[in-house]
Amino acid sequence: MVTIELLLIGATGKTGQYIARYLAEQEATYRRFVRAEDQMLPGSFLGDVREPHDVFQAMIGVRGVICALNTEGNGTLLTGLANVIDAMQRHNIKRLVTIGTAGILQSEAQPHLYRYQSVENKRINHDAAIEHESVYNKLLQSEHLDWTVICPTRLVEEERSGEFRVRKDVLPSGGTAISFADTAAFAVDVYRNEKHIRERVGIAY
Questions:
Q1: The whole model's pTM is what?
Q2: CA-CA distance, 57 to 204, in Å (whole number)?
Q3: What share of residues in the chain are helix, strand, coil (percent, to 5)?
Q4: H helical segments located in 5-120
Q5: Distance of CA 110 to the CA centre of its chain
Q6: Residue in 42, 5, 3, 56 with CA at minimum distance from that of residue 26
Q7: Residue-wise pLDDT tens for the chain (205 aa)?
């Protein structure tokens, strides 16, 4: 069996496309998990992240996982990550990097609250943050995983700069935006260099 460095879930999303690009630039071996025939490229696995069997099969021969799934308002993120966590345990795969949201970082102004629950919150709808919080709680309960949750603030379409701030558990002070490109580059760096194990990391300019 050929060992593949990682499975990339959410490869067709805005952050995921940049992750795929940077992995290719670094000549990393990876398998794209996609859910539609028209998204298939060489080295892709066609499946539904909500189906445990599909996720298990996609992980055969893989050493780690990067997940850049979006919230879709239908529980796909939570169901998908639950399947990912279970499949990783069954395959004895430890390393997982996933893209979260700054809403599940601790509030700087009210440290006992998540940002989405605090005076720092600027969103009216909290559904996405609540789903990301549920994922984070599942990760906290998983004793076997070396996970990292990257928590970007407002994502914008800008060129990769390589100049941004990161902070464990809290958003860097005054941070208001970060590009999809820089978020993706940070995710690849964190994965490949095994940084921020079992930590949430805020990222912003």
A1: 0.94
A2: 35
A3: 35, 25, 40
A4: 14-25, 52-58, 76-91
A5: 25
A6: 5
A7: 556 899 999 999 999 999 999 999 999 999 999 988 777 788 899 999 999 999 999 999 999 999 999 876 677 899 999 999 999 999 999 999 999 999 999 999 899 999 999 988 877 778 889 999 999 999 999 989 999 999 999 999 999 999 999 999 999 999 999 999 999 999 999 999 999 999 999 999 9
Pairwise CA distance, residues 172 & 13, whole Å: 25
Backbone angles phi, psi at 75, to 5 degrees: 85, 5
66: left (phi over 0), alpha (psi -120 to 50) or beta: beta
Nearest 5°: phi and psi at 77? -60, -50
CA triple 167-137-33, angle to 5 deg: 85
- ∠ CA 194-147-163, nearest 5°, is 55
CA distance 26 to 48: 28
Q: Give the integer Cα–Cα distance in Å for 84 and 89.
A: 9
Amino acid type, 87: A
Q: Please identify which residue in the block is written with the tokens 């208001």.
A: 176
Q: Which position has the token pair 């076997």?
A: 144
